[in-house]
Design brief:
By secondary structure, the protein is α+β, with helices and mostly antiparallel strands. Helices cover 27% and strands 24% of the residues. The protein has ten helices and 21 strands. It has an eight-stranded mixed β-sheet with strand order 12-13-15-14-16-19-17-18, sandwiched between helices. A hairpin with a 7-residue loop joins strand 9 and strand 10. Helix 3 packs across helix 9. The longest helix has 33 residues. The N terminus and C terminus are likely disordered.
Length: 493
């Protein structure tokens, strides 16, 4: 059963004939027969994370493309990922993606699709001047993304995508690589299998001595990709993991004091299938935290069960739960937090976003907000914020699909894969700032060196003041009627 409608967009049954991904589909002019010629474009989306459900020939210069809706849920049509081959050199084409389910989009703010090709494997954005996003009366008032593109190499296969893809296979390869490093502070375990028998991985990063059952623990829990099309969340999550397993001094200190539990892909089936928001069975898992089913939402059920066990363990303080997402209409990274009747708890949860803002130039406190919107009641942040111990902080970290601005410039800076990874590293670093503020982690020798520099500066200031005082007193001694009250100089250090 599909979820109740909860966001705006077209839902008018405009996807007749869109039942699966196109598979090496050659689009030829009406009435043409025979083998496709060069320039008769061949479309394909039958690969992991692929999504393109239908292609209509308009003219030799224009094609209408239809996003395949999420499996078992026709309401969500956003993510696309497909290849084009059999092109002719210097062939200029207009692609119209005609059945978006969202009304608002960063495509109105300068965002553009990504493209790469066989000989140019790095993702690049289609020039924004060639991209248009508009409501089209010819397509039942759906929103249409039109972009122009010129092919230049006949033997290349070109791939177009909504945002930087991050597949289930890529994640598995990454985790396999980490396991082979045989780090004593990194463990990977199978929490459960998805409906289609894919792994739900649970990572633990901490010093081995913290894993003693009798040792009190501070736990930080991070999850990502409950919404499969929100690929930037996986880059942020990898940035967190990369930093925590590194030899960086801050990472070493964090591992000594904190146990990190990370589930990097909560919806592996949806990711593999190329869905935008839903699982294999058409559920938006981030609306089912209140009562997840072990058969319909097995990954969510297993994650919630683990969180409840940690929360009930008297040896465990579950300090943070952070769910990583991507946002389709706002810029920058930002957080959503909860509203509490306890004013002290409400104010305390604002500390971490402010510390993150100081560390990450792309993080926006202006977009950060705290709410108890009824529509969000089934989300991880809202549900866990209501049942976990009152010392726990529950956040959703959002990052833009497109870009960020900084306080020093108004220029729009598009995110890259490295930009998302950097936000993850900055997120991890900020935990040290938080725990130093709460005195769990005391300053290390590097901080002592800084304090010595401060003491040296104070000493130099005192010496300067004393010299100034001696010079002033010598001048005053030559004045026979000098007032006693003017003999001293204030030492303000």
């Amino acid at each position: 059963m599909a979820d109740k409608k909860i966001d705006s967009g077209s839902d008018d049954g405009s996807d007749e004939g869109v039942v699966g991904n196109v598979n090496k589909f050659a689009v030829v002019p009406p009435g043409y027969s025979g083998r496709p010629k060069k320039g008769h474009l061949v479309f394909d989306a039958c690969f992991e994370c692929g999504n393109l459900g239908r292609v209509d020939y308009i003219t030799e210069y224009e094609y209408d493309l239809f996003i395949r809706p999420d499996t078992c849920n026709p309401r969500f049509r956003v993510w696309f990922n497909f290849t084009v081959e059999n092109v002719r050199a210097d062939q200029r084409i207009i692609f119209n993606i005609v059945n978006f389910s969202k009304t608002k989009s960063l495509y109105r703010e300068g965002m553009s699709p990504l493209v790469k090709s066989t000989t140019r494997p790095r993702w690049q954005r289609v020039p924004a001047k060639n991209v248009y996003y508009y409501r089209c009366p010819d397509h039942r008032k759906n929103y249409v993304l039109s972009f122009a593109f010129a092919f230049d190499r006949e033997d290349d296969v070109y791939q177009f995508c909504y945002c930087y893809p991050y597949s289930y296979t890529r994640m598995q390869t990454y985790l396999d690589t980490l396991e082979k490093r045989d780090m004593d502070y990194f463990t990977r375990e199978l929490l459960c299998l998805s409906v289609q028998q894919r792994r739900l991985d649970l990572l633990t990063v901490t010093s081995p001595e913290n894993l003693d059952p009798d040792t009190p623990k501070k736990v930080i829990f991070v999850t990502a990709r409950v919404h499969p099309g929100e690929t930037p969340a996986s880059y942020v999550c990898q940035g967190v993991i990369d930093f925590l397993v590194s030899n960086h001094p801050i990472a070493k200190v964090l591992r000594e004091h904190i146990v990190f539990k990370i589930i990097p892909m909560l919806n592996p089936d949806g990711v593999y299938l190329g869905n935008y928001r839903c699982s294999l069975m058409g559920f938006d898992l981030n609306r089912h935290w209140q009562d997840p089913s072990p058969w319909a939402h097995p990954t969510l059920h297993a994650c919630k069960q683990l969180l409840m066990e940690l929360d009930s363990d008297p040896k465990v303080d579950l300090d943070f739960y952070i769910d990583l997402h991507a946002h389709s209409t706002l810029m920058n990274g930002f957080m959503y937090g909860n509203v509490y009747d306890d004013m002290e708890r409400y104010e305390r949860q604002a500390i971490f976003p402010k510390l993150l803002c100081a560390n990450a130039e792309d993080f926006s406190m202006g977009n950060t907000s705290f709410n108890r919107d009824a529509v969000k009641a089934g989300t991880a942040r809202r549900f866990l914020g209501g049942i976990l111990d009152e010392s726990s902080h529950c956040y959703t970290l959002e990052v833009s699909f497109f870009c960020y601005t900084t306080t020093t410039t108004s220029a729009v800076l598009p995110y890259t894969e490295e930009g998302y990874l950097k936000l993850g590293r900055n997120l991890a670093k900020t935990f040290l700032d938080y725990y130093k503020l709460t005195s769990l982690i005391t300053p290390k020798p590097a901080a002592s060196i800084n304090m010595q520099q401060v003491r040296d500066k104070i000493q130099r200031r005192r010496e300067w003041v004393n010299a100034r005082r001696s010079s002033t007193n010598m001048r005053r001694s030559s004045r026979p009627h000098a007032s006693d009250s003017s003999e001293g100089v204030r030492e303000d250090v």
